[in-house]
Amino acid sequence: MTENAQTAAPANLQARAREIRILTLQAMGRLGHGHVGGSMSIAELLAVLYFAQMKVDPQEPSLRERDRLILSKGHCGPALYSTLALRGFFPLEWLDTLNRGGGRLPLHCDMNKTPGVDLTTGSLGLGLSAGLGVALGNRIQGIAALTYVILGDGEINEGQIWEAAMAAVQFRAGRLVAFVDYNRMQIDGTTEEVMDLGDITGKWKSFGWHVQRVPGHDTTALNDAIDAARAETELPSVIILDTVKGKDVFFAEGLVASHHMKFDLQQAREAVERLPGGKREGEI
Amino acid sequence: MRAVYADTLIALAEKDERIVVLEADLMGAHGTRCFAERFPERTFNVGVAEADMVGIAAGLASAGLIPFAASFGTFSSRKACDAFYINAVYSRLGVKLVGSDPGISAAHNGGTHMPLEDVGIYRSFPNLVIFEPADPVSLAALLIESAGFAGSTYMRLHRKEAPRLYEPEESFALGKGKLLREGGQVALIATGVIMVNEALQAAEVLAGEGISAAVVDMHTVKPIDRELVLQQARGCGALVTCENHQAKGGLGSAVAEVIAEEGVGLLARVGVKERFGEAGTVEYLKKNFNLEAEDICAAARRVLARKEGQVPAVPAAPAG
Questions:
Q1: A147: β partners
Q2: Domains: count for chain B
Q3: Which residues in chain A are contacts of B92 at CB distance < 8 A?
Q4: Do the domain assignments include residue B29?
Q5: What is the pLDDT along chain A (284 residues), one digit of tens a residue?
Q6: Domain limits of chain A?
Q7: Dist. CA B1–CA B8, nearest whole Å
Q8: Which residues pair with A148 in a beta bridge?
């Protein structure tokens, strides 16, 4: 990768998000299935984190002083793997091995299998506590790195998220930044139907967090919000992203059923051709 | 014992900046306030949130620290189970989880607070080390061993006073049981403060009857010390396991697996038999759950009789 990770332009970030979508669709299409909805809704966020915000070194994925990301909604691992491959953590060819037996890229994130995956996730509701622990561990050791945690909106049904939300404020974890991918859909229906999150912004505010709410597919807004979250060093920050489940994928966008779908490589190719802006030379 | 727990952690932390302590609103119960006063920046009281505590501990471990996290055994096992599985054990991070008041030592707190299944829950977790020190000397030594071990551990901590069984200079290794008393005819394999002491008493009683009984302090239940179990099984052919836990799932099961796989020895298990905990003094509960020295003696006589071919494997049902 030749880009300076700290100065990527917003236009480049949109292009990165598009690449993340393409690689993820391709990998899932080869496998025959995947959590496409929640992977597409965080493509811009991953692009901004790994190509504009996070201090990471693909050559030294375990560097002590690195910023870390915990994808607490671990079923969206394929989107993270596409990002990590683009960022140079491992060869793009690895994406063809998604969820293969004995492979390095399981559907749910595994820190012991994949370079660049900072924590193992998959059982929902656990990532914020662990992220808080990482942030506190860095603080004890005088490391000023940021710890980012991506939560699903359905995931925050889990009570442990709110235990961690209380603890993060109690311990003044100022270098902890959480995101809620608020695509308003979970497995069995919309969030309103299954477990209404109500005043989601107010909930986090009442727990004492520094709260922002941004359009989750706008890389400039995301970048600015993360800047603001980093500037807040006393309190933990949460950024609620208004997103669209299955964003930009014609057979998945806005569908509850997109949480996990079966589709083949041919359908993935068609989805890529129908991405906004159409198919481009050299893609897929 | 809790003073030994806290003092050992302080001693460890003075030498190693990576030691951190987590509590879930039981700092007073575990005597760790002194650790918090000495190392406030390395102490986290997370409130009544045990799964959160274990998750935070795993995060601290992934950042390079060595976290000791404690709650009552019921909560460290049943409440924190998934966080401990995913964040600590499956992730191969070193979280040192402590479950206090093992089994009937929960006494007055009763059935809701009486961990009689924690070892059973955790014994199927791959590569997890499970141990229960039987006296203050082994507690301090095994805590130090645990801190030096790269993976996760689960320790059952008896908080109250416990008689000293070992000389201060005695050395211990996780996974290596201790032969406390030589025997010949039967081996009493016990774990934890209450049952190791009951087993020692039982061995005295049996000696008075002309039965020589070895006593093993099997402080580590997982991985079980196969070598020591087999040495006893081959040596005398009659084993009695003694545990302050359900008879299924813990030490008795671990020993049964070893001797069944090797096809040596007979076994009787002393433990809680398909019952929930209840409130009472430790003395009452020991009697009520048949965990006394006399119960161990009865089990020893039974297994010896079987060895000599005198009675069937299953005792006859009481008449009437």
A1: A68, A176
A2: 2
A3: 112
A4: yes
A5: 334 444 567 679 999 999 999 999 999 999 999 999 999 999 999 999 999 999 999 999 999 999 999 999 999 999 999 999 999 999 999 999 999 999 999 999 999 999 999 999 999 999 999 999 999 999 999 999 999 999 999 999 999 999 999 999 999 999 999 999 999 999 999 999 999 999 999 999 999 999 999 999 999 999 999 999 999 999 999 999 999 999 999 999 999 999 999 999 999 999 999 999 766 665 65
A6: 10-273
A7: 10
A8: A69, A177
Same domain, B80 and B198: no
Chain A residue with the nearest C-alpha to that of B46: A167
User: Is A171 an interface residue toward B (CB < 8 Å)?
Assistant: yes
Are A137 and B55 inside 8 Å of each other by CB?
no
Q: What is the CATH number of the domain that holds B60?
A: 3.40.50.970
Mean pLDDT value across chain B: 96
Residue B89 Cα, gap to closest chain A Cα (Å): 11
Tokens encoding B317: 């049902």
Cβ pairs bridging A and B (under 8 Å): 108
Domain membership of residue B167 (yes or no) is: no
CA distance A262 to chain B (A): 27
Global ipTM: 0.94
Q: Tell me if A133 and B47 make a contact (CB, 8 A cut-off).
A: no
Which residues in chain A are closer than 8 Å to B89, comparing Cβ atoms? none
d(CA B19, CA B12): 7
- Angstroms from B83 CA to nearest CA on chain A: 6
Phi/psi of residue A9, nearest 5 degrees: -75, 150
Interchain contact, A123 vs B52, CB within 8 Å: no
Token digits of residue A87: 């960022």
Contacts of B91 in chain A (CB under 8 A): 111-112, 119-120
| Amino acid residing at A60 | E
Residue burial B188-224, b: 16+ Cβ < 10 Å; e: rest: bbbbbbbbbbbbbbbbeebeeeebebbbbbbbbbbeb
Contact call for B52 and A167, based on CB within 8 A: yes
Pick the closest to residue A19 from A274, A272, A281 (CA basis): A272
> What CATH topology corresponds to A10-273?
Rossmann fold (3.40.50)
For residue B315, what pLDDT is reported? 56
CATH number, position B229: 3.40.50.920
> Residue A97: exposed, middle, or buried by beta-carbon count in 10 A (0-12, 13-18, 19+)?
middle
How does DSSP classify residue A50?
Answer: I
pTM of the model: 0.95
Give the Cα separation of A190 and A177 in Å (integer).
25
Helices (H), chain A: 10-31, 36-40, 43-48, 77-86, 127-140, 159-170, 191-195, 200-206, 219-231, 265-273
Same domain flag for B205 and B251: yes
Assess whether B276 and B221 both reside in one domain. Answer: yes
Q: Cβ distance A214 to A225 under 8 Å?
A: yes
Percentage of chain B lying above the pLDDT 90 cut? 96
Task: Please tell me which residue, B127 or B314, carries the higher pLDDT value.
Answer: B127
Task: Give burial (CB, 10 Å; 0-12/13-18/19+) of B65.
Answer: buried
Is the Cβ of A118 closer than 8 Å to some Cβ of chain B?
A: yes
Contacts of B114 by beta carbon, 8 Å cutoff, 6+ apart: B74, B101, B103, B104, B106, B276, B277, B278
CA-wise closest residue to A215 among A10, A45, A5: A45
Chain A CB contacts of B62 under 8 Å are 111, 118-119, 130, 133-134, 137
